[in-house]
Each structure stands twice: as C-alpha cells, then as structure tokens.
Design brief:
In the C-terminal section; belongs to the class-I pyridoxal-phosphate-dependent aminotransferase family. One of its GO terms (molecular function) is transaminase activity. With 460 residues, the protein is an alpha/beta fold. The chain has 3 domains: 68 residues, Orthogonal Bundle (Arc Repressor Mutant, subunit A); 131 residues, Aspartate Aminotransferase, domain 1 (Alpha-Beta Complex); 213 residues, 3-Layer(aba) Sandwich (Aspartate Aminotransferase, domain 2). Helices cover 40% and strands 14% of the residues. The protein has 18 helices and 15 strands. The strands form 4 sheets. An 8-stranded mixed β-sheet has the order 4-11-10-9-8-5-6-7, with helices on both faces. It has a 3-stranded antiparallel β-sheet with strand order 12-15-14, covered by helices on one side. Strands 1-2 form a two-stranded antiparallel ribbon. Helix 1 packs across helix 3 and helix 2 crosses helix 4. The protein is globular, with a radius of gyration of 23 Å.
C-alpha cells in the first residue's frame, strides 16, 4: 500500500498528498476499512517532512475520507449518506413530532410580505429574450446597488444565500485550504468547507463581532478566506459595529498575509435586521464579496440572494452558472424588484422588524427575571447557555418544544453547552416559555444570575 500511495503522488505538498490519496479512495484503490501506512513511513518514502503528511491526513479527515483511531492507526472510511453526515441535518432531528418547533431558524410566515399583489402587478411581462442576457434585471441591479453598503464592482443574483456560499466557496477554496470561520458559526458553512476538504479555523466573537486579536492570530495560519455574518449572527444575534469593522480591516492590512485573504460577508438576516448594514468592503473593497439574502425578509421560496464584490470573483460565479441553471428566475427577480420598491411592502417589513425586536426583548427580559442572561441583540435566534445540552433538549421536548442543539454550531468547544431557540417564531406566552427554558437551562443559571450567552474565547 505504501508503494501504491507513493506512486500516485507527483505533488509532494500537503495539498498534493491529500489530493492523491483522495483520488485513490474515490477510485476504490484504497478500499473502505484499509489501514493507511504510518505518517513517518509515508514521509520517509516520499522524502518529505512528517508534518506535511500529518497536514494532508488532517485535510482528508476533515473531508470525511479517513479516520485516525489512536494507536490502532488511520483507516479509510466508507462513504456515508451525505444527509446523516451534515451538521445542518442535526439541527432539527424530529420537528414533525413536536407541536412547537423552535429549532428551525426560519422566519414567521405571517410576517412575510404577501406575494400575490406583486405577481399581479408584473403580469405577463416579457423578461427573457436570450439565454446569454445579463443574469440580473437592470432595474433590480440599480436598486441593489443603492442598498449596498459600499460600491461593488459587480453584482449578480443567485438562488439564496446558501447557493451563494456554495458557489463562492467553490470559486475560492481548494482541498486543504484553511478558512477562518466564526465560533460559534453557521453549520452549513462548516458542512460546505468539509465537503471540499477545507480546514475551518475558528475565530472568537464578542458583543461587537469578530475579535481583532483572534483574527490576527488566525491569519498566521495562512487562510485563503474569512467567512463572517455581519448582522444578526446565527446563532448569537451579534452584529458587527462600524468601529469593529474598521479595527478588523486594519488588522488585515497590518498582517503580512491579510491582503491575500478573501472576505465573504453573509448578510443572511437582510431587511429584518434592526442594525444597519456594516461591511469590511468599505475599507477593503478589493477583498470583500458580500451576500445579501432576501429569504428571511421577503420569503424563503423566492430563493433569491444578491452577490456583490470584486468583478473577477463575481464574474467567475456568474459565468459558471451558465453551465448549470444559467440565471435565477427573472419572474422571481421581478417580484423582488416590486417588493423592494412597493411602499406598502416597505412598511410591512418595518413592522416585521419591530415585531421580531419585540419578541426578542420580551423573552430575554423574562429569562433575565429568572436569572438566565441570554441577550439577543438582533435577528430571530436566541443562543441559550445550558448546563447540559441533551438534558435541556429532552426537558423542552417533554413540553412539546423543539430547539436546536448547540454542538453543530461549534468549530471548537466553547467551554459550555448551548441550545439555539428560534425566538422569532414565539408570538405570545413569553413568561411561560421563559420558565420552561430556565428550567431546561438548569437551576444554577437562575440562582446565580451570572451566566450569560458568553461568546467565549475558543482557546487558540
């Protein structure tokens, strides 16, 4: 087997070794269950450092291709059904079985704008005359540019924020690359990175966004990208302040490797966020690509998000789509354009923002009265500290309430358990729910009144 691996490798970098072994796994030449040679034997055979081989093995393990079992050795893993492997799939284990599902992270349907008037207004307008037209309706692009927090070189529209992240990651990231991510962060981002064999590197958060010191230390690891949520961060609700954006931009400019890092801003909350849009693109427009989603504000089934940033990257995404879906439905783009410019819809979105804020405020106040400090600055989710994640989930399930476990959000353990509660779906009964949440969080929370949603340092 050692000779098989050595003969397949023509690039002796960590990335090259990982890619060659990955190909052998995919073709079945390294079958599931096969035990790999030791790191030192591979390094000796290839004439490279054991550190290089270890790094390749870590990339393969992150991609789910191999697994190290301590002294027993390292083994090729069988292909797992993708859904079972995803962090994303672990957020809502059995929502259909519980009457009150607060695990989903979706907006309240009744706070979304009505689409029927917009559909009637656009009628049977002819929107497509050629398959090679620009992917964005010109009037929609003009409206999007007016809303952008900095002037992007190019804009395009894709089928939602996750589609945008998938395509941007596909354009930027390769096997073995390191990507900086928030800790805690959004599970589908971690799934995407694992799917391409990238290595997620956690950066810490505080109430103002990513911590500059944590970012500076993480840049030492030569990442290719930083993925962050600038508003209503999921799961914590934290929004980056203008001052913090300036600090982070300065940190990246000052670091020897900072100028080569692409910044991907996922503005997933969009128009239901109470905080104004803030972007590193105001300081680093040549490095920042921003995603603005309309799913939580205007409707998940619109399946629309805008991407704006450097022309080379956005053009790469748009051109690659020509070989797949081509463009996002221009009918749906026309609906979005109507919603963004219709005064009635604009007022209804303002009402939705205020209602989500009211729900957050009432539940957080009710929890604080019971000694549970879980401030939620923005968005529709609440990041609740609990003594024991599984116990809290079971305790709430006994009352018909589903919440999401905190573990899938963690790149590295935070030093305490959490669950995520979709507070945006809670319309009333805040005192009763707070009592159940406080009970699930466990008595010491209420007794001390000192435990907060603490965005803990991840112990770099």
């Amino acid at each position: 087997m050692l000779q098989l691996i050595a003969s397949a490798i023509d690039d002796r970098t960590a990335r090259g070794v990982a890619a060659a072994v990955s190909r052998l796994v995919r073709t079945g030449e390294l079958p599931a269950g096969a035990r790999l040679p030791t790191v030192r034997s591979v390094a000796r055979e290839l004439g490279i450092s054991p550190t290089t081989v270890s790094e390749a093995w870590r990339s393969l393990a992150s991609a789910g291709a191999i697994q190290t079992r301590g002294r027993s050795g390292t083994f090729v893993l069988p292909p797992n059904p993708l859904r079972q492997h995803l962090r994303y799939a672990r957020l809502t284990a059995s929502p259909a079985t519980l009457p009150h599902d607060l695990s989903t992270g979706v907006p309240d349907h009744d706070l979304l704008p009505h689409l029927a008037p917009a559909l009637r207004r656009i009628g049977d307008t002819r929107l497509t005359t050629s398959y090679l037209e620009e992917p964005v309706l010109p009037r929609l692009e003009a409206v999007l540019r007016d809303r952008w927090p900095y002037p992007p070189e190019r804009l395009t529209v894709v089928d939602g924020a996750l589609d945008a992240l998938d395509r941007i990651v596909g354009a930027l990231v390769r096997l073995g690359d390191r990507v900086l991510v928030e800790n805690p962060g959004f599970p589908p981002v971690l799934d995407l990175l694992e799917a391409v064999g990238a290595v997620p590197v956690p950066v810490s958060l505080d109430p103002y966004g990513i911590e500059p010191a944590s970012l500076s230390a993480a840049l030492d690891r030569a990442p290719v990208a930083l993925v962050l949520q600038p508003r209503a961060q999921n799961p914590t609700g934290v929004s980056m302040t203008t001052g913090r954006a300036v600090e982070l931009a300065a940190t990246m400019r000052a670091h020897p490797l900072g100028r080569s890092v692409a910044v991907v801003e996922d503005d997933h909350a969009g128009d239901i966020a109470c905080t104004p849009p803030v972007s590193l693109g105001e300081s680093l427009p040549e490095q920042v690509v921003r995603i603005h989603s309309f799913s939580k504000s205007h409707g998940p089934d619109l399946r629309l998000a805008a991407i704006g940033g450097p022309a080379a990257l956005v053009s790469s995404v748009a051109d690659r789509r020509l070989l797949g879906p081509g463009w996002s439905s221009r009918v749906l783009q026309a609906v979005l354009l109507d919603l963004l410019t219709d005064p009635t819809t604009v007022r209804s979105l303002a009402d939705a923002r205020h209602e989500y804020a009211r729900r957050r405020t009432l539940l957080c106040a009710a929890l604080a009265a019971r000694g549970v400090l879980a401030p939620t600055p923005d968005g529709i989710n609440l990041w609740l500290p609990v003594r024991d994640q599984q116990r809290a989930i079971l305790s709430l399930a006994a009352h018909g309430i589903a919440v999401a476990p905190g573990t899938p959000f963690e790149v590295r353990p935070l030093g305490g358990d959490h669950v995520r509660v979709t507070v945006g779906l809670v319309r009333d009964g805040f005192e009763d729910l707070a009592e159940l949440l406080a009970e699930a969080a466990d008595g010491p929370n209420r007794a001390s009144g000192r435990r907060s949603h603490s965005l803990r340092r991840d112990g770099r």
